[in-house]
Description:
This protein is α/β, with parallel strands linked by helices.
Amino acid sequence: MNRRLFTLAATALAAFSLSTQARAADELRVMVHSSFSLPKPLLAQFEAQNGIRLAIIKGGDAGEMLNKLILTRAQPIADVVFGIDNTLVGKALAAGVLEPALPQTAEAPDANLGAALAAVDYGFVTLNYDKAAVAKRGISLPKTLQDLTLPAYKNWLVTPNPATSSTGYAFMLATISAMGEEPAFAWWAQMRGNGLKVVKGWSEAYYTDFARNKGAYPLVVSYATSPAAEVFYSKEKTPESPTASLNLKGGVFRQVEGVGLVKGGGQRATALKFVDFLRSAPVQEALQTAMWMYPVQAKTPLAEVMRHAAEPTEFEAPATQVVAGKGAQWVARWTKVVLK
């Protein structure tokens, strides 16, 4: 679930290492973010049907992955890329690392990522709460983001840093999209004064500081599918999730992930088949409990456990052009307001 930025030095080193790998004639190089996961039999089936070997290159967080593609665009290290989302597509297009056009689905026009990417899955960054921790505090859940600035909710929320986490970045974008830039940063300043905890990434926030995992914070910035994952991985096989989503206005961001061809990459015909593969029925079903995202193909049956992951009815989805133009500026301002 967690994806975004990293140090330039580490990027350059990893990119150089990847660029020196031998390239086989019967190999399709697939760059993916670190959260990519599909059942091995599905990947093996694609290889057998197309007479190709898949070289899956894990590029780290989605932002890290994109930076690797940018650094190596003169000598592309992949033929196809999965995991560029609606927060990063503008940067990818501006950098010229994607082939400019791919077929788009008519079944999910709201998930359109533009001509260069075909949508594969989507999810929602939102607040999760630990039911037991909230009950223990004896305080009703906040009804608005502004409520979280009240003394009663001091030291309630932990969030990943937008500068180092795509989860934190998406949540910041949601607040700005809903409130407007000035009110949003005023809210963040109030949250700083009310005990907001900021950590590097989603894993640290969820598995260290979130109350569900013996941390001190009843609320965490996470995903709408996290409660379903809690049930799926529970050793006790509980019928209900110990956590739930708190979908407050301005606190929900719709993330859409896509697949596209790397500009200058090879194996174009097979790469296009891989695009179709990621949007095929078996993959659309499998990705729900492999990557904890919703399938973009509307007719895909949902996994039974996804009943614990109700989709928010209201969410923010700012234009990719706006995000590309102002995202870095907003992160810099957020850092000054919240951390300095």
